[in-house]
Each structure stands twice: as C-alpha cells, then as structure tokens.
Amino acid sequence: MRIGSVALRYLFIFLVVAFGGPGSSIAQNQNVVIYWHENGLVEQEAKTLKRKLSKLGIRADVVQHGDPRAPDAVYIRPDAAVEAVRTVLSTLSYTPSYIFPVDYPNDEVGVDSEYSISVGLRSTFRYYENNPAEVPHRVTPASLAYLAEAGISQSEFVRRLKHVAPGR
Questions:
Q1: Report field, pTM of the whole predicted structure over 0.85
Q2: pLDDT in tens, 40-52
Q3: Cα 54 to chain center, whole Å?
Q4: Rounded CA gap, 9 and 42, in Å?
C-alpha cells in the first residue's frame, strides 16, 4: 500500500510539472514583443495589449518600431501556445496581411529570439537584405482565423502554422 502512495505522489508531481498546477497560466513561458508605430498600432494600443496579456500571465515588451508606417505583419514561432496566439490575434488593432516564415532568421523577432510571438511588424522592413528566408507569406483574415481556431490542439496548431507560414 505504501508503494502505491509513493507512486501516486510522483504521478501528481509529474502532472503538475507537465501541465501546470492550480492557477497556472494558459500561456506559461510565452513572451510577446509588441512594436508600436506612429500610425496603425500606436503606443497606447500596444500598452493596452500588454496589459491584457499580462493578466493571462504572458510577458510582453512594448518597443517603438523604426518604421513609422502602420504595421502589416506578425511572426509566430511553432512553440507559441495556441491560446496565446488566439489572444494576441483577437486583440490586435490591425489585421495582419503578412506572416513571416516559421524559420524566420532574425534574432530580434524570429526563430532565434526570446519571443514566441512578434506583432507590429512591417513586411518590407528587411527586404533590402534580399534573403528568401526573410520574405513573409501573404495571409487573409480567414487564414488567421483558421490558424487560431477555438478548440484545436497544440499539435494541430503547429501543423496549421507550418501550412500558413512554411519555412524555406
């Protein structure tokens, strides 16, 4: 009987570590960067989004973008939690027209950055480098809704993300 209770205790610890304990955030270890612009996603809107994300346990940094024109793009890493993606996309004050590839090689907002989601991006900001891996994919509101559909699993989200924003 004692062996059973020890095994049960280890199972409980495993479940808490793997899935979070009571009160754990839906978006644990999710970091978002929000770039604001003089037009489109302005500083106050970025700060409002940061507050909404903070209430969900999502860390967000607000930074002024170097391009004052309105944003038109996002980047979402494959390890982003689908719940975090859904929250961010439903809260944005602009509708993205572009999404950067899942393997976007940028250490500030891409696959090598600390951020699982980057918003307030400009699709043309880095074109001068002429790197095919940096060219964003065109998206529609329908494809973004498909990506963040309610009720899909994390593995289904990753499959959809790789379809909407394939790597090079």
A1: no
A2: 899 999 999 999 9
A3: 14
A4: 50
